[in-house]
Amino acid sequence: MASLPLRSVDKFSVTFVVDNCIEWMTKLPPGFTHEMKQHLSHNPPVDDVTGAPFVDLENCCCGAHGFSALIETQIEGEAAHFTLFDTGPDSRAIARNVAALQVDTHKVERIVLSHWHADHSGGMLSFLRIRAQEACRSPCVVDLHPDRPVARGISVQGKVIGRMPNDPTFDEIRQLGGVPETHAEGHAVAGSTVWVSGEIPRVTEFETGLPGAVRWTEQEGKTDWVPEEHIMDERYAAIDVAGKGLVLFSACSHAGIVNVVKDAVAKFSRPIYMIIGGLHLAGTDLVPRIEPTVEFLANKLRPAPTYVLPMHCSGFAAKVALEHALGEGCVPAGVGHKFEVTGDREAEKHVFPPSVQ
Fold first, then answer.
1. Which residue from 5, 118, 209, 305 could staple onto 164, CB 3.0 to 4.6 Å apart?
2. pLDDT tier at 1 (50, 70, 90 boundaries)?
């Protein structure tokens, strides 16, 4: 392994707090649980007439176009760490889902924002507000890329058809008890159990960013929208599970999931156990990227990932292609799902560096 400060963990779990999709009925692999199991096993309301527990639909998670994942990491003999990776698109979705999943917000010691887009930052202030209302006295670090844009939008044929809502400001974060911490370089957090990347090298020919992405600039008295397809502030997160390999969180993959995987393999020389998050393969403009992406993950990366969880902006066509190539290794994950895995120090003896063809 490269000499980077990432320690392997004995326990890893993730709860999906925000995602586009809700999936209650599909069979999931071992270690995964549906949201409904929690509702029916933790003092559900009971029907006075039949004595049966209610399926409390008023208080279940809602889907929203965005992403947020609560990550728990622990090394045996040490305290667990809780990291919130992104916060979804709006104040209401994260508030409803935090309540539905009974998230202990006071345990969250750090929010990591993958990149400055409102579908990932829009719930941040709401989450900090909930945390403050619960009278949490410990500070919550908010891990941000320093290059916060004034505004971002999408253009079609040179015309800006819409701009994203404002990202939280540093002052707004401070006012709600958050502690902004800016990082342009890769760094370890959560007791060195989570790695937050720096700039992701763009080395894959077909991964050319987000078509039509633009950024509002104010320089030398001039203001205008300028092309910004590469979204260079995007970062991924990595966790190394003993005896398993790396779990990668790529919230939107504007850099390209192949570029993300290549960077993680180069840095850590560890097999990829799990890939989680938006793969940004939805939409007609990105259809040509699906086949080479699936080919890389299924056939060129050795060993292939044990699980790929295509979420948020991955798109239906990409999910179908990944399921065809990976079978049950493609997991139909969604909001409210939880995954837990225990590391295996003995199995670590048989884990070998990966290769990329």
1. 118
2. very low
pLDDT at 184 over 90: yes
User: Whole-angstrom Cα distance, residue 89 to residue 120?
Assistant: 5
11-198+210-344: which CATH number, 3.60.15.10, 1.10.260.40, 1.10.10.10, 3.90.1150.10?
3.60.15.10
The counts of H helices and E strands in the chain are 8, 20
What distance separates the 2 farthest-apart alpha carbons in the chain?
72
Strands 301-302 and 237-241: unpaired
Please name which of 352, 237, 239, 268 lies closest in space to residue 10, comparing C-alpha atoms: 239
**Which pLDDT does position 51 carry in this prediction?**
92
- What does the alpha-carbon distance between residue 35 and residue 220 come to, in Å, rounded to a whole number? 52
Which among 168, 196, 188 is positioned nearest to 180, based on CA atoms? 168
Residue appearing with tokens 């080395």: 203
- Please report how many Cα atoms fall inside a 13 Å half-sphere around the Cα of residue 50, on the Cβ side: 5
Contact between 149 and 167 (Cβ < 8 Å): yes
Comparing 248 with 5, the larger pLDDT belongs to: 248
Coil vs helix vs strand at 143: strand
Q: What is the pLDDT of residues 200-258, one digit of tens each?
A: 999 999 999 999 999 999 888 889 999 999 999 999 999 999 999 999 999 999 999 99
Crossing angle for the helix pair 257-268 and 287-295, nearest 10 degrees?
30
Q: Which two tokens stand for residue 190?
A: 């959560």
Give, as one character, the DSSP assignment of residue 294: H
Is 278 in a helix, a strand, or coil? strand
- Per the CB < 8 A criterion, the answer to whether 309 and 322 are in contact is no
Q: Give the residue extent of every domain in the chain.
A: 11-198+210-344
Residue 41 dihedral angles phi and psi, to the nearest 5° = -110, -5
pLDDT, tens digit, for every residue of 103-127? 999 999 999 999 999 999 999 999 9
